[in-house]
């Protein structure tokens, strides 16, 4: 099938490359000339394990190409997938300007029936909106389906090719049939429903997962107070199949490019429609509290944060990605600086920019150099490299003795063996 994917970010590039891997003829389109130039030189504009290989293989096989030109990418496509950003607007609603621009451009260049699939996470009713925009600009009959994406950054290629399910929200039988054909070689349940339910499914999924993390962080606070170990509690409840093991890691809470904006969006929807969403609201508040609680405990352990040198390891919102959007680590930097701490940072791939944290932060290439002379080391991202840090060597370099294990990566006995005080989450 001839498929065009609009947007070559985390979702668009991965889905385009993987659809080519499934045998389709794919064009990846982006408005960013810089991204398309990089892709045409074989350079990945994002860090995602395994992606470069899939892209290279399919470009070489002639199944995948990249362009900025709608005039070549739209006519003749049988399916057009929209995977542009849908950031939060200032009031918490979803900023649909990129969706609208893509719909308008499809409308300008479409010449025959095509199925347009909204892969971006979009508010309920957006499929109808996109359909209206495309038809208004073109006069051509198109069907718009909702096809939300559930991939995880850091595992995106695997998740796209081996998903738990594919959701297709459709109002037209021929559009459904075409979508099922596009995903024919993906072995998973294909759940077909109406478009509004499909759009809400994506928000409900992210709100539920965020709530699960907030719940275990709430339990972490209680565990600290009563002298229990939240990791044991998570194991104890997670082995119940009704609860499940995933998303029960206590730590700094959720961040990234999806959960915060999607939880904000569903909150906005509830407020707009006068439907109370107390659980979603509590999940949001708990997330901020999880970060502040850690900063309070760190301050308490050091006596004061004023003038204290803190080495922060990890900027990305989770391991295996360079994505720092709404990362807990950036919140930590802001909170710690507000209380007078002097921060320096290291991340294996992610970078921090001054405007994101209210000023310049020295960035080091090496975790040990970052820690030299520090009063405390804070591990803020669950990178595998951090799990295997030489804690003895690290201890010899620091001035203080406090290791803040904000993702519960280390065993307390092992940490203490090397002379550290171990401050972790939900544990003594
Ligand atoms: P991204 O910011 O990484 O990529 C979006 C891309 O779209 C950018 O390269 C941008 O230049 C391009 N773009 C913007 N307007 C365009 C236009 N009019 N025409 C062509 N290209 C245009 O975003 P992302 O992380 O890939 O997310 C895309 C969507 O998928 C969002 O709605 C997001 O919520 C959703 N989503 C993301 C993830 C994730 O893990 N990142 C997972 C599931 C769903």
List keywords for this structure.
13 strands; 14% strand; binds nicotinamide-adenine-dinucleotide; Rossmann fold; 428 residues; alpha/beta
What does it look like?
The structure is a single chain. This protein is of the alpha/beta class. It folds into 2 domains: 2-193, 3-Layer(aba) Sandwich (Rossmann fold); 209-424, Rossmann fold. Helix content is 45%, strand content 14%. It has 18 helices and 13 strands. Strands 3-2-1-4-5-6 form a 6-stranded parallel beta sheet, sandwiched between helices. Strand 4, helix 5 (97-109) and strand 5 (114-118) form a beta-alpha-beta unit. It is globular, with a radius of gyration of 23 Å. The chain starts with a strand and ends with a strand. The relative contact order is 0.09. The model has no long low-confidence stretch (mean pLDDT 96). Residues 6-12, 29-32, 35, 83-86, 98, 101-102, 120-121, 149, 151, 153, 257-258 line the site of nicotinamide-adenine-dinucleotide (NAD). The site of nicotinamide-adenine-dinucleotide has 26 residues, from helix 1 and helix 5.
What is the gist of this entry?
The chain is an alpha/beta fold and 428 residues long. It has helices at 10-21, 33-40, 51-60, 70-73, 97-109, 126-138, 156-161, 173-182, 195-226, 230-238, 259-273, 278-302, 328-338, 354-357, 367-371, 384-387, 391-397, 412-417, and strands spanning 2-6, 25-29, 64-67, 79-82, 114-118, 142-146, 166-169, 190-193, 309-313, 342-346, 376-379, 402-405, 421-424.
């Amino acid at each position: 099938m001839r498929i065009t994917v609009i947007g070559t970010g985390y979702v668009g590039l991965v889905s385009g490359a993987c659809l080519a891997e499934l045998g389709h003829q794919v064009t990846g389109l982006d408005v960013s000339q810089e991204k398309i130039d990089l892709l045409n030189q074989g350079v990945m504009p994002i860090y995602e394990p395994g992606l470069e290989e899939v892209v290279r293989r399919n470009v070489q096989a002639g199944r995948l190409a990249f362009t900025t030109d709608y005039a070549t990418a739209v006519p003749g496509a049988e399916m057009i997938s929209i995977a542009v950003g849908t950031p939060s607007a200032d009031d918490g609603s979803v900023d649909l300007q990129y969706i609208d621009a893509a719909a308008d451009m499809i409308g300008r260049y479409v010449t025959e029936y095509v199925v347009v699939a909204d892969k971006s996470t979009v508010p309920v009713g957006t499929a109808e909106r996109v359909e209206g925009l495309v038809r208004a600009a073109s006069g051509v009959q198109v069907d718009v389906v909702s096809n939300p994406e559930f991939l995880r950054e850091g595992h995106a290629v695997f998740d796209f090719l081996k998903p738990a399910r594919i959701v297709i929200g459709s109002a037209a039988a021929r559009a459904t049939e075409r979508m099922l054909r596009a995903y024919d070689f993906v072995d998973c349940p294909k759940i077909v429903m109406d478009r509004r339910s499909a759009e809400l499914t994506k928000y409900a999924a992210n709100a539920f997962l965020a709530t699960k993390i907030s719940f275990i962080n709430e339990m972490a606070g209680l565990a600290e107070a009563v002298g229990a170990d939240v990791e044991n509690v998570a194991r104890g409840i997670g082995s119940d199949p009704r609860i499940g093991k995933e998303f029960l890691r206590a730590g700094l809470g959720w961040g990234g490019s999806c959960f915060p904006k999607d939880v904000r969006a569903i909150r906005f929807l509830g407020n707009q429609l006068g439907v109370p969403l107390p659980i979603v609201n509590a999940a949001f508040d708990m997330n901020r509290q999880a970060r502040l609680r850690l900063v309070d405990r760190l301050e308490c352990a050091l006596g004061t944060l004023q003038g204290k040198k803190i080495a922060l390891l990890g900027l990305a919102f989770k391991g295996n990605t360079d994505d720092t959007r709404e990362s807990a680590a950036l919140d930590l930097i802001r909170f710690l600086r507000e209380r007078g701490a002097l921060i320096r940072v290291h991340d294996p791939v992610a970078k921090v920019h001054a405007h994101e944290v209210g000023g310049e932060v020295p960035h080091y290439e090496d975790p040990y150099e970052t820690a030299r002379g520090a009063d405390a080391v804070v591990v803020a991202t669950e990178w595998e490299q951090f799990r295997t840090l030489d804690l003895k060597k690290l201890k010899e370099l620091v001035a203080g003795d406090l290791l803040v294990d904000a993702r519960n990566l280390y065993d307390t006995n092992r940490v203490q063996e090397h002379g550290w005080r171990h401050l972790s989450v939900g544990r003594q």
